[in-house]
Amino acid sequence: MRRPPGRRTGASLYAEAREIVFDFLSDYDILGAFWTTVQLALLSAVGSLIWGTLLAAMRVGPVPLMRGFGTAYVNIVRNIPLTVIILFTSLGLYQTLNITLGADRSETANFRLAVLGLIVYTSAFVCEALRSGINTVPVGQAEAARAIGLSFSQVLRLIVLPQAFRSAVGPLTNVLIALTKNTTVAAAIGVAEAALLMKEMIENEAQLLLISAIFAFGFVVLTLPTGLFLGWVGKKVAVKR
């Protein structure tokens, strides 16, 4: 039996509806926004790991002044909202003190300052994660190393920190996942990452649920494999005691 002329099938109606619903996505650079998020997370993670390790060394060190600085830094920074730190990097450092970190454009300066703010904030949590790993290293190992003439820095670098990192993979994984999600705060100073694009799309399009689902899925793709992989690494390198 022939279909009447002009009558469309269910498949064609579905294809047309899908095109209407998803067609607006081509007007936005979603992959570019998530790439900016990835760059923010990676650069901040490296910087936080370096500065957090130094803070942990200060907190367990023999010098009272450095130990006091590390303790004060961690306790103060952990209790300041990340939004306040990010806004300070833009309003305080960039607009007031004209600190651009070598950038010649405001977009680049805001990106670098956002990385700086994330490092300042996240390193406090990295420090505590590493300090928990340091506490798992038997005291006798450090005493034996000092007994054979190693300095504090040598004991920390050769004996304590390698074991502390292996014990702290789990807590550091949680910090990295939290950092990835915290990159959304960079939208507050105009960094063109995923959260800023999501806000723009919601303002321009009448597709709230779809847009929210797309960005939620994007962050799941970023964080879930990282958590699973680092969880597997943590089990492989765990110190058997």
* Molecular shape: globular
Cα-atom radius of gyration: 24 Å
Q: How many strand segments?
A: 0
CA-CA gap between termini: 77 Å
Helix amount, in percent?
A: over 70%
Number of helices: 10
Unreliable runs, pLDDT <50, ≥5 residues?
Answer: none
Average residue pLDDT: 85
**What kind of sheet is the major sheet?**
none
> Helix and strand string, N-terminal first?
HHHHHHHHHH
What class, by secondary structure content?
mainly alpha
Proportion of beta-strand residues: under 5%
Describe this structure in words.
By secondary structure, the chain is mainly alpha-helical. 76% of the residues lie in helices and 0% in strands. Helix 3 packs across helix 5 and helix 8 runs antiparallel to helix 10. The longest helix has 31 residues. It starts with 9 loop residues before the first helix and ends with a helix. The mean pLDDT is 85.
